[in-house]
Every structure is written in structure tokens, then in C-alpha cells.
Amino acid sequence: MARRPDPEPDCRASDSSYDVVIIGGAAIGSAVAYYLTANDGFKGRVLIVERDPTYRHASTALSASGIRTQFSNAINVKISQYGSQVIRDFPDLMQVGSDRPDLNFHPGGYLFLARTAEQEQILRDNHKVQKACGADVELMSPADLAHAFPHLNVEDIALASYGRSGEGWFNNTGLMNGFRNKARAQGADCVTDEVVAIQRQGRRVTGVTLASGQRIAAGYVVNASGPRAALTARMAGLDIPVEARKRCITVFTCAASPEGSARINQGRLPLMIDPGGVYCRPEGSCFLAGCPPAHDPPVAPDDFEPRYDEFDEIIWPALSARSPAFEAIRPVNYWAGHYAYNTLDHNLIVGAHSDLPNFILANGFSGHGLQQAPATGRAVAELITHGAYQTLDFTEVGVERIIANRPFVEKAVI
Fold it and tell me: pLDDT class for 14, splitting at 50, 70, 90?
């Protein structure tokens, strides 16, 4: 479930000029601040501007908190492989004084189920990409699936794909808090305020104006404002195809829980994605579930009303057909969050805009921002510090494809 974030202190920027101003202080923005201040080649000053010190409506806080390597594009596989490494090493990397934040990672894995010949071929194609990257993913026949997870009805299943390691779920706001607290310990400043204007001269941004009236000069501005990313980009005179799209989560209890019944992975059940898109995973003594909406319009940035009918009309019918254990379940909590949805290709947009080279985008993650935050933060820090990527090349997910209207499609989107 969503964890309560650490509150942001009420403060003002300590100076009127920063080398880097980051708009948005959730997982992506905090990761950028951490990697900048941890980079030996970066000698500048960093400011995070965050409009909501509670983060209660941040996509980070309202996410299902998962990480997986089962993607169709190699860049996304590698991004999550690095994210898994950071989650594993988080207590050491983010230690501040005696505080060693542990993200309580649950290595349950992800389980994709395919029913049709088209879905089966996608799993097989994706598996080739994943294995080429060294991901620990296996394909399961219906017989293998029935043996591993005996509670499942597999009569209509053609193939399954299962992540044996490096996949699971973790403390969502713990990741954000760890990055932000370490960044501050390393010298980054944070301010509770809202950017209401971005100044530019020709092909460069020069600073931002805050709702408080304060003006901050900036060498670089990083757009890490999640579902509000298009609004932020427009302040700089740019258009990006990112919209707020509502995604709802239901937590339910189960009269006869199947957790512990798996014959692999110490009995742990994975996050299962049914062929129709309904997903479900254990959440403590309960289960957490969601689904792709039947109607998916853009929503207002402050619209967080759950679509309660999704459970009765979509989620419960799919789950009860998949397992007898899910015939008697009862919702105990609902919430809605926002995807920062890239309408072009559902993939992240990271990098400098050719029309404004010191305005850096870190947007459009389409539900994958939490797991992609570590690699994105590192990439943006490298781009600012060195002018080029040093570790993982993000060129494929850069802004050029957006300008050219050339989709870079990710097939494994939940």
C-alpha cells in the first residue's frame, strides 16, 4: 500500500542562483539531485522545487511499487536491472549518519500470462530480448505453470513468462525519501514552492519564478514534474505528449488466501498479469489489484477519485475465473493515482531538447517512473556533468523521437 512520505521542511531557497533547478521532488527529481551531488565531476549547486510537501498525491506515493525486467526493449530491461541493484544496495548507498534506509524488497517476481497466439509470440519475442540482457526470466508451459502455482486455472493459457529474480515490490516513498535525504546531506537544497514561470533567452533557459515571488537563476532546469510535465514544458515554450491518466488500485482480503502455496520461490506468489491486463499481487495479509481502464481519457491534475466500479466489473470477474481462491474476496481499500502518460509510445522521455539544450526532460514514464528513477537520475546527472551519457545510453528514449513523431514502442506495458 502507499506509505506516508517524510514531510518536506518549510524553507526557501538559500540563494537566488543555482547551477541546476529541479522541478518536482518525488522519485525522479530526488534521484537526479542525489546523482548530481554524488558525482565527483559536478561542483555546482542543486535546488529541488516541490509544490506539495506531503507528496500525498505524487505518483510515487500512489504507485503499486513494483520493479521488473520483463520489457520488450533492451534499454528498459537494463534500466530495471540497474534499479534492482540500487534497491539491493540502498541501505549502504543512502546511509546518512546512523540511518540506513531499507526498502523492504519482496522478491515475488512478475508472472505474465498469454492466452492468444499473438500474446504468446510477444512473450517469446520479449524473452529473447530479456535473456540477451542477462535477465533471469523463464518461459513456462501450462503444465509448468500449474505445477509452480497450483491455485491457478491454466486451461486457457498458452504460455507464461516468470521473473525468477530481480523483480518484486518495495517501499515506494522509502526510495524517494532515501534519495532526497541523501541529496540534502550531500548539499542539495529543497524548497516548498511552485514554479509558475520559466525564463529563457533564445535557446537557453535562464531561471524560474516561484509562486512566492522569488526568482531563481539557473544554469540547467530539469523537468521532473510527473503528470504535470506538459504544463511545465509549456512554461519554457515546449510541447511534450504527456498527460495525466488515472489508474486505480484496490486492496482486498481473501477468504482462502493462496499466498504460500507456490511450489517455487519459497511459496511466494508473484505479481500476476492476466491476459486481459488485470494484475494482482500479495500485499501483507491482503492482495493488491488493478486493471487497464475500459475508458482512458486524460484527467485533471487534482482528480484522484477512484473508479470503484472497476473492481466489480473488471477485476473480480477476471481473478475469480483465474483462481478458485479469488472467488470469495472483499475490497478493504481503494485509491487512484496518475500515470505520467506518454501518448506517443508509452515510454520515458529523457534528455535535452534540441531547441533548449539546458532544459532537461525526465518525463512520460507511463507508470514505470518509480522503478526507472535510479537509472534516470544517473543518466540526467551524467548529461549535465559531462555533456553525454557515461554508463547507460538513453539516446533511444530521448526527445528527438518526440520531435520527429517516431514512436519507440514498449510492448510490455501494464
Answer: low
Total domains, the chain = 1
- What lies within 8 Å, CB to CB, of 149 at 6+ separation is 111, 261, 262, 263, 269, 270
195 pLDDT band, cuts 50/70/90, is very high
Q: How would you classify the pairing of strands 356-363 and 215-223?
A: parallel
Q: Tell which residue, 312, 257, 231, has the closest CA to residue 23.
A: 231
Domain range for 261 is 106-167+244-339
pTM (two decimals): 0.95
Would you give the DSSP letter of residue 315? Answer: I
| 405 belongs to a structural domain | no
CA distance 186 to 265: 39
Q: Could you tell me if residue 383 is inside a domain?
A: no
Query: 263 lies in a domain?
Result: yes
DSSP for 10-32 reads ----SSSEEEEEEE--SHHHHHH
* Average pLDDT of span 256-266: 97
Per the domain annotation, does 208 fall within a domain? no
Would you say the C-alpha torsion 346, 339, 378, 231 has a positive or negative sign?
positive
CATH number for the domain spanning 299: value is 3.30.9.10
The helix/strand/coil state of 54 is coil
Instruction: Check whether 315 has a pLDDT greater than 50.
Output: yes
